Amino acid sequence: MLFLVRHSLLFMFFFAILGFLLPTLSLALFPFLSIVLFCLMTLTLLGMKQNELVKRLSSRSVWGYTFLHSIVFMGVVSLLGRWLSFSDDLLLAVVAVAGTGSLFATPAIVRALGFDSVQAMAMTISTTLCLPVAICITLVFYQTGQVDLDWVSYLLRLVIFIFGPMLFSFLVHHFSPEESLNRFLVRISPYTILLVFAFPFGLVGSFRVLFDQNPMMALNYFLIATGLCSLFFILSFILYRKKGKAIALTASITSGNRNVLLTYTIAGALLGPAFLPLAGALQIPTYLLPVLTRWLNKVLIK
Q1: Mind telling me which residue stretches traverse the membrane in this protein (predicted)?
Q2: CB 3.0–4.6 Å: which of 93, 142, 157, 194 could bond 274 by disulfide?
């Protein structure tokens, strides 16, 4: 178990490959990912000071990042998609990915990299709160059918995955003896990263289905997914480089990680037939990013 924790960044990528090799198990896990998501969010928030998190969320820098993460990148990939003559379905999918909030696993990944997980959590929450606006923009401009967002579903998930864990964490910190709670958190905190393994494993199955049906199309989707992750990562790093290495890499990895599961849960079929296979293809480059980020961090130190 300790071996998995110590090498967790590498194992995230390994589980993405494993999910591709075992599509039946990957597809079987997919319906349960929302439960894993809730557990990860709760445990991650439980280990953070809520006052500090709220303070970060009220800062202008976090919302400036959110504007870049969603609105700016949506415009960039839209222009690139039109320039590359993407089909309507594929253009809708890539713009939806660009508007997607950061993965809830991001703070755990950032902590594993040794950076500020509270800042990453603030960025994750702010980009998630911006998600309904981004989805509306995407559907109005890139979806030709009737726009019928499941707002009830979105609001329920917002409460369950953000406000619920935050309230639970606040109540636990308020009523539990601090010494006992800290001892418990120190004991379990390293193992929360293990929950992240479920996401690459469970999401990549849809990409494997496409690969079995049309290998060349699957290859194109993989190249597009890799290009999207690289674009988000590199542009964020360039724009935040002057703020220091730690902030730049935190912004980069937060930007590269996209919570496509939540976006698909909210908008579903409105995102078109290309979204879910593209979301599956994203898992491989997404979970390779933390490994590359650790290597880049060591290079920059030198």
Answers
A1: 12-41, 62-84, 90-110, 122-142, 154-172, 184-207, 219-240, 261-284
A2: 93
